[in-house]
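Renewal narrative, Specific Aim 1. Our central claim is that a sequence can be written position by position from structural information alone. The example that follows is taken directly from our test logs and has not been curated for this report. It begins with the structure tokens describing the chain, in the order in which they were read.
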């Protein structure tokens, strides 16, 4: 298991706590929580050894389409494909940024 940490510039916006996926399902779990400040902390625990460059590229590509909110994002990856990773992260961000007042604890 590798543990990775990426710190990225972010914008302060209202944010809901969010959980998508299920680590026991054999692919990917993404949790988002509020933080103070102006950075996104992305903590990744992955079963894929030596995947730091792949994760960094994926995060950088996502930032082009989706500016990151100030948050702590925890990702538990058990060899999910890049398509599944991006889908789960986008799903989590959509729920976290839902401004209808819903919380997903």
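The sequence written for that structure reads:
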């Amino acid at each position: 298991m590798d543990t990775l940490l990426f710190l990225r510039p972010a914008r302060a916006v209202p944010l809901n706590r969010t959980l998508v996926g299920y680590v026991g399902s054999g692919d990917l779990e993404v949790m988002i929580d509020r933080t103070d400040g102006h950075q996104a902390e992305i903590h990744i625990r992955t079963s894929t050894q030596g995947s730091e460059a792949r994760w960094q590229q994926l995060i950088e590509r996502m930032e082009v389409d989706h500016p990151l909110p100030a948050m702590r994002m925890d990702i538990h990856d058990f060899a999910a494909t890049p398509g599944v990773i991006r889908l789960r992260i986008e799903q989590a961000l959509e729920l976290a940024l839902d401004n209808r007042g819903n919380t997903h604890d």
